[in-house]
Design goal:
alpha+beta; 8 strands; 6 helices; 163 residues
Length: 163
């Protein structure tokens, strides 16, 4: 199986029933795995949703299966992480139906906030409330310095490399 590299940032509409018209360019990038379906869930760190192609979700599940059912922290994490995870498929019009609880988590109000951001992020896709995306991803205000973050992340990937 080839590794996915989902790319692109799209402003999309969501209808009053919670159906997202998925960007055609992202659907095309998913063609090789689309027959398996998708799983949508809450993001761990941000107030957005994450869509995993089913093969990628299976990798996440394998990681989860390594957690001990006899360790309270492991079970609490698994319960919190898996809460809301939902298998979804495209309908005949290229839409996915996002569960109401997940929409609430991502602060996507229906029908008022029908404009959202759908962004490819390597092996997964994020779905954001547009205002939250603008603030958390696009806005460089405050103490945040992307260059410093890039250096720190690079060091995490190669801890023995000082450059």
């Amino acid at each position: 199986m080839t590794m996915l590299n989902l790319l692109g940032e799209y402003t999309c509409k969501i209808d009053v029933k919670g159906r997202l018209m998925f960007p055609a360019r992202l659907r095309k990038q998913l063609e090789s795995v689309l027959h398996n379906g998708l799983v949508i869930n809450r993001d761990i760190f941000e107030g957005c949703l994450v869509v995993y192609p089913k093969p990628e979700w299976d990798k996440v599940n394998r990681e989860m299966s390594r957690l001990s059912r006899y360790n309270h922290k492991h079970q609490l994490f698994q319960r919190k992480f898996m809460k809301g995870a939902t298998h979804v498929e495209f309908d005949g019009s290229g839409r996915i139906n996002i569960p109401t609880l997940l929409l609430r988590y991502a602060s996507i109000q229906l029908p008022a906030d029908n404009e959202i951001i759908v962004s490819g992020l390597g092996e997964k896709i994020e779905i954001w409330n547009k205002a939250r995306y603008d603030k958390n991803v696009l806005d460089d205000a405050g103490d945040f310095d992307f260059a410093i973050l890039a250096e720190e992340v690079r060091k995490d990937l190669e801890p023995n490399n000082e450059n």
